[in-house]
Amino acid sequence: MADVLTYVLHYEGELNKNSLGAVSEGAARASEIGGECHAVVVGGEDLSDDLCRSLGAYGARKVFRARGPEGLAQPVVDVMAKVIDEHGHAYALFGGGLLGFEIGAGLAARKHAGVTMEVISVRAEDGRLVAERPILQDSQISVSRYQGDLGIIIGRINAFEARAVNGGPAEVVDVDVEYSPWSTQAEMVQRGEQRGADVDIEGADILVAGGRGLGNAENFKLAQDLAAAFGGSSAVAATRAVVDAGWYPYAAQIGQTGKTVAPKLYLAAGISGAIQHKVGMQSSENIVAINKDAGAPIFEFSDLGIVGDLNKILPKLTEAIKAKKAS
Ligand SMILES: Cc1cc2nc3c(=O)[nH]c(=O)nc-3n(C[C@H](O)[C@H](O)[C@H](O)COP(=O)(O)OP(=O)(O)OC[C@H]3O[C@@H](n4cnc5c(N)ncnc54)[C@H](O)[C@@H]3O)c2cc1C
């Protein structure tokens, strides 16, 4: 059996983008080792048949649906352990994020399985899956090969891209689970941004990131105006230097000690491109940097570099985008 099991988080009728990436990755890799990708969902009446079936569009062939508390790790561990016991999945794959880390670690302990975290790439080798993760500040790649019946792969957030496939609707299988006593001890009181602010940078398609080159907290308005001009799924992000200076909330920090993102466009304004920042945004599809120093390291990994003063360039860009949209 070479099937891959994933967990899909949902909220108010929407499936989490990071989880959909895990389903896509699970489906692609499972097909290379002769298996299928299946998903576990846990929740209440909002988990409609249609919502579950829609995971077929990302490559899931079966969706195991359990009634229980959504968004908490331990109940999901109970459900996944039961599904794996009964169906013999060879791998459990998660899209990263705090919940994925917690569930993956809990499942590893429960099933005595090997686990690799912060994975950026998974490949098939001799009929088995191999996980790769960066180590030593992303300067080297460590390769994990799994022994035993189950391997657990936890991606770096947004490492796996959600890709629609031509699959039909997934089969929905209801699972009855007797939750462990400890799994029902916690209840969801409130959902919100885990690091204390209401900034959604992980889900944004366009990020305008500001660094110390903005000069002060008030100047973040230049970045906010540009993000607003882009509209749609755009947000403002920040470097640690400015977060530490209190110019912008920690929830928006990108990098080693912040969040990892992979938007379609990452526009870095007044950011030097330190390695600790780079590790959080280097997977972005397009990187555009504005910096007054032509020798700034960020230009080494930018697709487009603009050498100049952001105080002049950002307002002009904002006006140009507004004009383009109005035309
Ligand atoms: C253990 C550890 C963990 C870390 N974790 C993180 C992390 O998660 N995220 C993170 O970001 N950093 C992190 N750092 C800090 C990191 O090393 C850098 O110090 C930080 O990223 C620098 O932020 P910056 O680019 O905003 O500032 P700076 O390095 O000061 O760069 C400012 C840039 O703005 C340019 N500039 C100035 N004025 C203008 C202007 N008017 N127009 C255009 N350009 C201008 C300058 O030329 C310069 O390149 C960490 C450090 C350590 C030691």
Description of the molecule:
- Helix 3 packs across helix 4 and helix 5 packs parallel to helix 8.
- With 327 residues, the protein is an alpha/beta fold.
- A hairpin with a 2-residue loop joins strand 8 and strand 9.
- The protein folds into two domains: 181 residues, 3-Layer(aba) Sandwich (Rossmann fold), CATH 3.40.50; 121 residues, Rossmann fold.
- The radius of gyration is 21 Å and the shape is elongated.
- The mean pLDDT is 92.
- It starts with a strand and ends with a helix.
- Helix content is 28%, strand content 27%.
- The strands form four sheets. Strands 7-11-6-1-4-5-12 form a seven-stranded parallel β-sheet.
- It contains eight helices and 17 strands.
- The longest helix has 17 residues.
- It binds flavin-adenine dinucleotide (FAD).
Helix and strand run = EEEHEHEHEHEEEEEEEHEHEHEEH
* Derived structural class: alpha/beta
- Identify the CATH architecture of the largest domain: 3-Layer(aba) Sandwich
Number of helices: 8
Any idea what the shape is? elongated
User: Can you tell me the CATH superfamily of the largest domain?
Assistant: HUPs
Task: Please render the helix and strand layout as text.
Elements: E1 4-7, E2 10-11, E3 14-15, H1 17-32, E4 37-43, H2 49-53, E5 60-67, H3 73-87, E6 91-94, H4 97-111, E7 114-119, E8 121-125, E9 128-135, E10 140-145, E11 151-155, E12 171-175, E13 206-210, H5 220-230, E14 234-238, H6 240-244, E15 265-269, H7 275-281, E16 286-291, E17 304-307, H8 310-326
Parallel strand pairs: 1-4, 1-6, 4-5, 5-12, 6-11, 7-11, 13-14, 13-15, 15-16, 16-17
Antiparallel strand pairs: 2-3, 8-9, 9-10
Helix pairs in contact: 3-4, 5-8
